[in-house]
Write a structure and sequence with these properties.
heterodimer; A: mainly beta; 50% strand; globular; B: mainly beta; four-stranded antiparallel beta sheet
């Protein structure tokens, strides 16, 4: 099983600041990496797939990068609606696995 | 609009059986894989398994193999997750989620259902 490790567990950021979230895979997942956002009481929502492709309508302040085992989600200028938990997920191998999540909170 | 509508919250006792549902609409049900994901209270996401409704091909996570059964009914465009004997440790939110691309087993999940809360308590 591929283990996905996210860091940090919690990220405290001020409005308008940049947030950088990391995700590491225990073995290569190529570019089969997705990022999801989950707000309290809501289902997860797909943001980024294929490591760097934004879903339709996702603001350009969200960007993804990386391949192989190291991936990054960057939010260039945090807005109030971006405070949430973010999960990475590999979909290259069975079983699909998620990281443990990074909580982005208001500083 | 593509939608996955899940059945309502359940309160069950240990040892009871349960089948929850995920009704799909707005797309060709038989050509997209559907996955089930568990989220225990305050915890992260766990992939349980996936089904291809076209031929009911199913793959389970080793962690859930033998613990649950995933099925699908093409006539009603509905996927199911069932337990034969619930445990308190099955208490969680359960989400169904469609693969983002048709006929692709290498795919992220989009969209997701709203979730079904299952509570198992004596």
């Amino acid at each position: 099983e591929i283990v996905m490790t996210q860091s940090p567990a919690t990220l405290s950021v001020s409005l308008g600041e940049r947030a950088t979230l990391s995700c590491r895979a225990s073995q290569s997942v190529s570019s089969s990496l997705a990022w999801y956002q989950q707000k309290p009481g809501q289902a997860p929502r797909l943001l980024i797939y294929s490591a760097s492709t934004r879903t339709t309508g996702l603001p350009a302040r969200f960007s993804g990068s990386g391949s192989g085992t190291e991936f990054t989600l960057t939010i260039s200028s945090l807005q109030s609606e971006d405070f949430a938990i973010y999960y990475c997920q590999q979909y290259n191998k069975w079983p699909r696995t998620f990281g443990q999540g990074t909580k982005v909170e208001i500083k | 609009e593509v939608q996955l509508e899940q059945s309502g919250a359940e309160l069950k006792k240990p040892g009871e059986s349960l089948k929850i549902s995920c009704k799909a609409s707005g797309y060709s049900f038989t050509t997209y894989w559907i996955a089930w994901v568990r989220q225990k209270p305050g915890k992260g996401l766990e992939w349980m398994g996936v089904i291809y409704p076209g031929d009911s091909d199913t793959t389970y996570s080793p962690s859930f193999q033998g613990q649950v059964t995933i099925s699908a009914d093409k006539s009603t465009s509905t996927a199911y997750l069932q337990w034969s004997s619930l445990k308190a440790s099955d208490t969680a939110m359960y989400y169904c989620a469609r693969h983002h691309w048709s006929n692709q087993w290498l795919a992220p999940f989009d969209p997701w259902g709203q979730g079904t809360l299952v509570t198992v308590s004596s």
